[in-house]
Amino acid sequence: ISKGPAITKVAKSTAVPPGPPVYLDLVYIPNHSNSKNVDVEFFKRVRSSYYVVSGNDSAAEEPSRAVLDSLLEGKAQWESNMQVTLIPTHDSEVMREWYQETHEKQQDLNIMVLASSSTVVMQDESFPACKIEL
Question: Do the domain assignments include residue 111?
Fold first, then answer.
C-alpha cells in the first residue's frame, strides 16, 4: 500500500506580527472592530492618538468587547501615557457596558471615549458625526 503526500493546512494568521511600534494620528480599527483581526498585539504595535471603532451589529458581536479590552491591555504596555481618543461610529450596548465597566482603567491609561453630539444631514439621511482636528 502506498501513501500519498500528506496535505497540511496552515491557518493564515491575520494578526499583527510582533515588531517595533508604528505611530499614527488616526486609525480605523479594521473589520468593524472584530476580534478575528484585532488583538492585543495590534494595539501594542499600532499606536495612535485616535482610534475609530465601527460596528453596530450585536448579532455579529460588533464592536467586539475583546477588541475594546485588547486596547486597554495593549496600551498598558506602551512606554508613554499619551492621550488616546476612542471614536465610536455608533452607540451600542457593548460600547456602553465596556465604557462603564472599565472607566477607571481608561482614566489610568489616559483613554477618552468621544461621544457624538453632532448630527450631519445629507439629503434624506442623517447620522451622528464627530469633528476631529489633527
Answer: yes
* Domain contains 89: yes
**Structural domain boundaries enclosing 110:** 22-117
Cis ω before 17 (30° cut-off from 0): no
Residues 47, 73: contact at Cβ < 8 Å? no
Residue type, 28: Y
Per-residue pLDDT of the chain (134 residues; tens, 9 = 90+): 555 555 444 444 455 667 799 999 999 987 655 566 788 999 999 999 999 988 766 565 568 889 999 999 999 999 999 999 999 887 788 888 999 999 999 999 999 998 766 677 888 887 766 666 65
How far apart (Å, rounded) are the C-alpha atoms in residues 17 and 124?
Answer: 44
Alpha helices in 51-108 (DSSP H): 65-75, 93-101, 103-108
C-alpha cell read off for 95: 460600547
d(CA 25, CA 3): 55
In a domain, 12, yes or no: no
Maximum CA extent, the chain: 72
In a domain, 105, yes or no: yes
